[in-house]
Amino acid sequence: MKKIKLFDPFIGRDEENSLHRVLKSKFWASGAGIGKVQEFEEKFNKYVGSDSCVAVNNGTAALHLALSLFDIRNKEVILPSLSFVSTAHSILYNGGKPIFVDVDPKTLCLDPELIEKSITKRTKIILPVHFGGMPYELNKIISLCTRYDIVMVEDAAHATGASYKNKKIGRHGDAVCFSFHPVKNLAMPTGGAITLNNKHSKNNNLTLKIRRWCGIANRKGSKYDVVDLGWNYYMNEFSAAIGLAQLRKLEMMNSKRRKIAKTYYEEIEVKSKMPFNKECCYHLYWIRVKNRDLFMKKMQENGIETGIHYFPIHQMKFYKGTSKLPITEEVGRSVVSIPNHPNLTEEDVDRIILLVNRFGS
Ligand SMILES: Cc1ncc(COP(=O)(O)O)c(C=O)c1O
């Protein structure tokens, strides 16, 4: 029986050759590298259409650094609880207070009406997560930010290549954070990026570049100064080289994901499933089932890997007791991700649909 993975990077000769070139150069770290990190930043910035871009070594670092631009100490940041824990941790790293808000059950993204109800005098940032690659109601969130003078930082870890109102994700918020973890739409061994868009983009770009490498600035040959507290968040040259190869075929990979998602949407018979939207890049495809443990077991027995995205953050031991979110809690009990990636064949997709309809409805 053929096993089907939940996530599976789509790689070929281009990645192999790029890696080989970096290996042979022996310049593997960005500080002394052969310029792949900078090339990736420039090309990704152009692809997205943002003002500037800073590459880092993962999505968590991107969130940490992006939020560090806006002094959130003792301020509130609105976010969903249905996310990977880094979304919330990044607020605590910067001394802010996470305010978890419930999601819209149709998309599993933040519900703009509930966001507005949660805004207080201490709200500094709204941090939406484009769940599964689905940007949702960004116009409403942007107008809330304008009306209440709030910054928008987007967690676009799932949304590389997605768009909203025909503009690429990465183009809208003050800062937008991407993850290039191997399971993501643009896969690297490890990587992330922040794109910047507001009027302070140029200064913020410099601040981020200083903070991603230990606060170091004014390098001249082997001399340098340390002007800020920073971290070692540099992307390495191997990741950037793979990222460049992946960027060249990102549109093709995302259109495969979209095609599969459309077929799932049309043919899967469960009560609640991810909607179809041409602007979504379908990092994952979610459905909701009644008996999740049994469903996952049956799928596993038939060679199909499934996953849970996510157990809500506010129900984790470290964050417990912070909020009550009925929709998120219900979704957290029933949501399952099924395979959606460019390596799937039509036969794989048909088999997945058959089994989901047998065990999930
Ligand atoms: C929504 C979300 N935010 C942030 C991250 C963190 O990204 P990374 O794993 O690259 O640190 C992830 C990664 O899984 C994610 O899914």
Structure commentary:
With 361 residues, the protein is of the alpha/beta class. It has two domains: 13-247, 3-Layer(aba) Sandwich (Aspartate Aminotransferase, domain 2), CATH 3.40.640; 250-359, Aspartate Aminotransferase, domain 1, CATH 3.90.1150.10. Helix content is 38%, strand content 16%. It contains twelve helices and 14 strands. The chain has helices at residues 13-25, 36-48, 59-68, 86-93, 112-118, 138-148, 201-211, 237-248, 250-267, 292-301, 326-334, 346-359; strands at residues 52-56, 76-80, 97-101, 123-126, 151-155, 163-164, 167-168, 175-179, 192-196, 216-220, 223-226, 272-273, 285-288, 335-338. The chain has a seven-stranded mixed β-sheet with strand order 1-9-8-5-4-2-3, sandwiched between helices. A three-stranded antiparallel β-sheet has the order 12-13-14. Strands 6-7 form a two-stranded antiparallel sheet. β4, α6 (138-148) and β5 form a beta-alpha-beta unit. α2 packs parallel to α8 and α3 packs parallel to α4 (86-93). The relative contact order is 0.17. Bound molecules: pyridoxal-5'-phosphate. Residues 58-60, 83-84, 86-87, 129, 155, 157-158, 179, 181, 192 line the site of pyridoxal-5'-phosphate (PLP).
SSE topology sketch:
Elements: H1 13-25, H2 36-48, E1 52-56, H3 59-68, E2 76-80, H4 86-93, E3 97-101, H5 112-118, E4 123-126, H6 138-148, E5 151-155, E6 163-164, E7 167-168, E8 175-179, E9 192-196, H7 201-211, E10 216-220, E11 223-226, H8 237-248, H9 250-267, E12 272-273, E13 285-288, H10 292-301, H11 326-334, E14 335-338, H12 346-359
Parallel strand pairs: 2-3, 2-4, 4-5, 5-8
Antiparallel strand pairs: 1-9, 6-7, 8-9, 10-11, 12-13, 13-14
The structure holds pyridoxal-5'-phosphate (PLP).
